[in-house]
Amino acid sequence: MSGNRLFVALAITTAFSVLSVCTVAARDRGDRHDDRGAVIPCSLAGVNPAYHPEIFGNRAVAQSYGFIQSQVGTWHVAQNCRQR
Fold it and tell me: Which of 1, 10, 20, 21 has the fewest CB within 10 Å, making it most exposed?
């Protein structure tokens, strides 16, 4: 009977260890929406407009960064855009 208890205790300890490691890995993997990165004027490289509503939610602000929106809703860099 003590062999079964030892096995159960070992199984529970292993399960908690795996859950702990998975939780830390998920937190560090990049599932962060608060770390959105910076938007550089005249560059849409790596930018997801959904994560930057303060810029892409206002056409005037987006234009100040050098971005224009097409009629179908996609964002582009203006042809005459120059980085400051």
Answer: 1
